[in-house]
Design goal:
By secondary structure, this protein is α/β, with parallel strands linked by helices. Helix content is 44%, strand content 17%. The strands form four sheets. Strands 2-1-6-5-4-3 form a six-stranded antiparallel sheet.
């Protein structure tokens, strides 16, 4: 009677083992002592793309596209083989496999292998990277390592950026247009304790005074024609616990300056059309390419606001003062445009690089990025190295003086079309700046369509 129960239990046990073998999500394959497949489960057929009848009776190498057979290693060494990366056929999937010997009564009977599909792990990694990217878009656009350069002046700036990140003080970034002030502001935020909260950029020069005020401080319902029902939060409220970056701070009106001063002093805002204050906790980083001290002397900028903003002033040097960084910047831009344009540019010639190093770069890093991008566009698809002929014409902000009757040296003689393009570029740029970078007004004054203006600005690299 006991023997019968034992037989029944053994049969139940074998059935349970078979059920587990069929139901497990990990792919399992079994070979005999000769390395011939004798058993696979449904998960195996799913991951490899091979049907059961296709693989049974085939040797251990039959399902491997890249890598060594774990089964054969086990049969040879009679020892388990741990995590090994393989590419299997015909699905082409990458798996991590483990294998161990099957030993019965001290005799090697075969090998069993378990395959883990890496595609699920890759999908999860991709999703995590995508989530991190979206979080970064919400919080900050650039990372500290995006500050490229190893010159003495840029190392000094990096040290100041690190110091600024450790304290909540207001920062004033000063530097010419195109030096990358937003990049440095992002870096301060990214290294600060506020880095998981919002980083909001505001171009103060791009908005009218009334619109800038409502954007910064918000408004109550009915405060002006077109105001949304229920009112709207301002950017200071949106940036609460985070950082707000006020670019072109020199362009704000005296009225808006007074309200900004209140934010810095009292840490509170008042929406347009309201008499109630709202507490905010926002780190302010301001930036300008103007001489604010001169603006203060001329009565265009509040002295008290200037001192509130410049608690921690940081000067961003122009590219002409750190030319030793140009080679590494060029290499960095090549990598960037390879990704953007789907190209495979590997380098720049020494002669072309010398031309770039000798240029004065009135447009700074932004101009250099523009030149590298345009150079790559000028290259044929099979060309891999930027040569001098790929470089666009480099413009200088120096005045051109023509002396009547003076003899020109050969090296100063250039094509007439280049002189015309140079004059056109400088005139468009001057008009654009004079009209506060208003493209519609610039096109109207120049007597050309807005579409033509965009084309010419792109052609000449006018930012």
């Amino acid at each position: 009677m006991e023997n019968t129960n034992y037989e029944i239990n053994t049969m139940d046990y074998q059935g349970m083992i078979q059920a587990v073998f069929l139901a497990t999500q990990d792919a399992i394959s079994v070979v005999n002592e000769r390395g011939v497949h004798i058993l696979v489960n449904p998960a195996y057929t799913k991951i490899t793309g091979l049907e059961y009848d296709d693989v049974i009776g085939k040797d251990a190498l039959y399902d491997i596209e890249e890598g060594e057979s774990l089964h054969m290693k086990v049969l040879t060494s009679k020892k388990p083989v741990q995590n090994t990366k393989l590419k299997i056929r015909p699905s082409g999937k990458t798996v991590v496999a483990q294998a161990a010997p099957i030993i019965v009564n001290g005799v090697m009977k075969g090998s069993v292998a378990v395959l883990h599909d890496m595609s699920g792990i890759k999908d999860l990694t991709d999703k995590l990277e995508e989530a991190e990217k979206k979080l970064r878009e919400l919080t900050y656009k650039y990372k500290p390592e995006d500050i490229i350069g190893d010159s003495a002046v840029i190392r000094e700036v990096k040290i100041m950026i690190e110091k600024a990140a450790k304290v909540p003080a207001t920062v004033l970034l000063r530097g010419e247009s195109g030096t990358g002030k937003e990049l440095f502001a992002n870096s301060i935020h990214a290294q600060s304790s506020r880095n998981y909260n919002k980083f909001i950029r505001v171009n103060c020069a791009a908005l009218s005074d009334s619109l800038l005020e409502s954007e910064l401080f918000g408004y109550e319902e009915g405060s002006f024609t077109g105001a949304l029902k229920g009112g709207r939060k301002g950017l200071f409220e949106e940036a609460n616990k985070g950082t707000i970056f006020l670019d072109e701070i020199s362009e704000i009106s005296m009225n808006t300056q007074a309200k900004l001063l209140r934010v810095l002093q009292e840490k509170e805002i008042m929406r347009v059309g309201s008499n109630k204050t709202i507490a905010v906790d926002v780190r302010v980083i301001a930036a300008t390419n103007a001489d604010l001290i001169k603006s203060v002397e001329e009565g265009k900028f509040r002295e008290d606001l200037f001192y509130r903003l410049s608690i921690l002033p940081i000067f961003i040097p122009p590219l002409r003062e750190r030319k030793e960084d140009i080679p590494i910047l060029v290499k960095n831009f090549i990598v960037k445009f390879n990704d953007d344009y789907g190209r495979n540019i590997v380098d720049i010639s020494n002669k072309a690089l010398r031309i770039l190093v000798n240029h004065e770069w009135p447009g700074n890093v932004r101009e250099l990025e523009n030149v590298v991008g345009r150079s790559i566009i000028n290259m044929n698809i099979n060309e891999k190295v930027i040569q001098t002929e790929h470089l666009p014409h480099l413009y200088s902000n120096k005045k051109v003086h023509i002396n009547n009757g003076a003899m020109l040296k050969n090296e100063n003689i250039i094509n007439l079309s280049e002189i015309i393009e140079k004059a056109e570029s400088e005139y468009i740029s001057n008009v654009y700046i004079t009209l506060n970078r208003n493209k519609t007004k610039t096109a109207k004054v120049l007597g050309i369509s807005i579409r033509s203006l965009y084309y010419k600005m792109e052609k000449y690299g006018i930012e």
